[in-house]
Amino acid sequence: MSGTVVVGVDGSPTARKAAETARDLATALGATLHVVSAFDSDRSDVFGTGSNKWLVSDADKAEQVARTVADTLGGNINITYAAAGGRPADAIIREANQKEARLIVVGNRRMRGIGRVLGSVANSVAHNAPCDVYIANTYDAD
Q1: Residue span of the structural domain in which 43 resides
Q2: 17 membership: H or E segment, kind and range
Q3: Domain count, the chain
Q4: Judging by DSSP bridges, how do beta strands 32-39 and 79-85 pair with one another?
Q5: Sign of CA dihedral 14, 20, 26, 32
Q6: Can you give the pLDDT at residue 111?
Q7: Which residues form the UspA domain (predicted)?
Q8: CATH number of the domain where residue 25 is located
Q9: Environment class of residue 3 by beta-carbon count within 10 Å: exposed (0-12), middle (13-18) or buried (19+)?
Q10: Going by C-beta distance under 8 Å and a sequence separation of 6 or more, which residues neighbour residue 119?
Q11: Is the C-alpha dihedral spanning 141, 72, 104, 126 positive or negative?
């Protein structure tokens, strides 16, 4: 197949399980894996004292989450990562469009109970994706 498989992560155990599934699918398909972490707003905080100050933004935090997951997945495939602004489903879909992804992988964490009524990232992605969507079973990851 080749192409790109996109997976959204947020640092949770369920997102990690979805990323592992995405890695396995990308490996089997000979595709690149693109790990995405979304951030809603780009707030910034300054840490430190005196001349030793660091600016940390939501975008930086999201990129760190994506990089950490990408770095720990291993495997014999090309893995890229990015932080994307916006609500998680919108950010994942936008990245999939930009990468011309062949597949998006999301976890099913909030597809039961109240999450099912209010909506979930998996539900939004499945209904609006520009490509195929694989919904990984992540219920036992917590």
Answers
A1: 4-141
A2: helix 13-29
A3: 1
A4: parallel
A5: positive
A6: 43
A7: 1-135
A8: 3.40.50.620
A9: middle
A10: none
A11: positive
Please give the Cα distance from 105 to 115 (Å, whole number): 18
Nearest C-alpha neighbor of 104 from the set 40, 39, 34: 34
At 4, which helix (H) or strand (E)? strand 4-8
Residue 81: both structure tokens together = 């990562």
Q: For residue 48, give the H/E element and its range.
A: strand 44-49
pTM of structure: 0.82
Structure tokens at 39: 């951030």
Instruction: Count the residues in the chain.
Output: 142
Q: Are 10 and 65 in contact (CB under 8 A)?
A: yes
